[in-house]
Amino acid sequence: MNDLDLDPRLVERVRHTLRAVAEATPMDDGAGPSLQAPAPAPRRSLLRPLLAAAASVAVVMGLAVVVTRSGRTVHVGTPADTPAGDGLPAGFDPATAVPVFSAEGDPAGVAGAYLRARFPDYPMPGVTVTPGERSAERADMAWSTAGDADGPIAHGVVMLRKAGDRWAVIAATTAGVDLSGVSYDGKRVRGAVRSTNQNSLFADVLTVGGQPVRHAPHPNGQEGQYRFGTAAGPSTGALDIDVPVRATPSVLRVQLVGGTMLSISEVRLDPPPLAPHHDMAACVKANSFDGTEPTADVVWQSCAAALQGTVFGSGAAGGHQWELVTAAEAGGQWVTLRSRDMAGLFHTSEDTRQDPGVTVLFKQLGPCCTVGEDTLVVGVFGPEVHALRVTPKTGPAFEAETVADPVTGVRYAVVAVPRSAVGNGPATTEVRLADGSWHDTHMPLELSVTGG
What we know:
Layout: H1 8-23, H2 57-60, E1 65-67, E2 73-75, E3 101-103, H3 107-118, E4 128-134, E5 138-145, E6 154-163, E7 166-174, E8 177-184, E9 188-195, E10 200-207, E11 232-235, E12 238-244, E13 250-257, E14 265-269, H4 280-287, H5 296-306, E15 310-317, E16 320-329, E17 332-339, E18 343-344, E19 346-349, E20 364-371, E21 374-381, E22 385-391, E23 398-401, E24 403-404, E25 411-418, E26 428-433, E27 438-440
Antiparallel strand pairs: 1-2, 3-7, 4-5, 5-6, 6-7, 7-14, 8-9, 9-12, 10-11, 10-13, 13-14, 15-16, 16-17, 17-19, 18-20, 20-21, 21-25, 22-23, 22-26, 24-25, 26-27
Helix pairs in contact: 4-5
């Protein structure tokens, strides 16, 4: 995809690096020609602040070795010899794995956007992506960095799955980098990463929002423009990880580094699920600690996921599925909206009272939550309302049919509005009645603020 041989900046960087390697290598004036293979030299560190100008031969050319003027061999990168796609933690299931990244577009476009987000000097060091296997619900995209006749510095697979109406990355692997020794028991992320690549390994354990977890051993990471190595590193061949993470979904990211990022291995780690229950309030109380880890949102969503009830509505938003669940909890019948990584909450007790002969356009209406890049607007209605339409001040309208709670008959609608469409100013809302007519609710909504 990128013709590195024709990039004059790249050529100059190669020349500069070769000069630096040669000048740093002691000359042996008495040494003559030898038919013996040169003895392996101590591995030279390729680590530098992550600036585009600070590149090494391993970054720009992917050579297996560089032979210096003294005949000494400096190893700067070796292609991995294990199949890409192997080496994920035990229990990883492509059918159920939670995405680590999603975007609009086809699998190639989403994989490209993911790689741009993970390689800070993109398209350096010669990042390429090519289609692999694909089905209606799954796609694998092969990636590699640099390389010439001697092969790439590193290569692997970006694994994608259809999540609702968009494609999402569920994991990335690097051939020869094995994450299968890492596990998460809900208390600590720990284990050993192993690599057959001679470049340095670094690891991060991150929140789903991309920040180092609360107890990251090196929260500031390495010096440079790009923060990395907050959990462990540098190390070659093997890297031990041991990071406390209390009952919070996290992301394990491991990268080979040599002047810049050379690879990407990434997978989400979720804590064990909570025990099934029938009382949200009691569950939240039992699983809340100091409010910092796990956070209130994480506790709420963990309890919502374990809630036993009847799912009567579902849909997709922000690369995740959402569900409406009705359950007999303390104090009556309650309806809960749940989705992975949802910020905000919707949990309401149902009022089935209805004045005869009076049409009430809505009982509750507002933006409650965000999921990925979407804002969720939830409405609660009587039996006469069959759809909800939300129209941002600028942009298209978004609408959804109402669904009825099978226990009470109260109707609900969930409308997902991309935050890119929110714009400035309130959105208008309308409802469609059983006769097909649309009516303004006269309830403008400020979609940039969620709550309730």
